[in-house]
Amino acid sequence: MNETITEKNYPIRIIWVFQKMLVFLIILLIFFAVFFVLGLSRGGLISSDYILILFFPFVFVFALVFCIPLIVSLLKRSNFHYSLDEHFMTLHQGIISKQNRNVPYGRIQEVFVHQGLLDKFFGLASLTIQDFSQGGMSAMDVDGYVGSGRSRHEVLGFVGNGIHIPGLKKEDAEELKAIILQKIKENPIEDSQSGL
Question: Of 114, 84, 85, which is closest to residue 176 (Cα–Cα)?
Fold first, then answer.
């Protein structure tokens, strides 16, 4: 298998960018439906004037909190590219600061396919790869998240010695995993590459 495989063969689905926003939009609609129902009755708990006063600031906050990350995610997605050739996995990422990485297959330690709850609903999966090229442990979890507590966020691309490609169709993620595992067998690490 000497042909180069790129994200055109196994694309990141655009629904990945929107899936979390869809959940938040549903929550927002439920929130306003409850306020609307409470304000409908003549002696309701909340007057309709008060609901309108709350509506516009809430929409503004919603735009800031959800639309800006949506735009950033779209930019990250459009500036992330990967390819698999005969000896290397090549990655390009970055909106302002462009970064490139060539990972020899012999340095890849583990390959995981992960499917979270939202991913299952949308038929998506993520491919996470751990390699030895940066040394030490990755700050990235097996499911492709960095950070802890409330500040956890999903990575697109590489961080430390972890590579995460989210938003793939489940079948595509499994096929990519099989291709990478085959390339690891075909390209074992040589002593001169190990750095030991």
Answer: 84
Per DSSP, 105 falls in state G
Question: How far apart (Å, rounded) are the C-alpha atoms in residues 87 and 97?
Answer: 26
Q: Can you tell me the distance from the alpha carbon of 106 to that of 108, in angstroms, rounded to the nearest whole number?
A: 6
DSSP-assigned letter for residue 10? S
d(CA 83, CA 52): 51
User: What single-letter amino acid sits at 126?
Assistant: S
pLDDT tens sequence across 88-126 = 999 999 989 999 999 999 889 899 999 988 899 899 999
CA 5 to chain centre: 20
Q: CA 78 to CA 92: how far, in whole Å?
A: 11
Residue at token pair 């008060």: 50
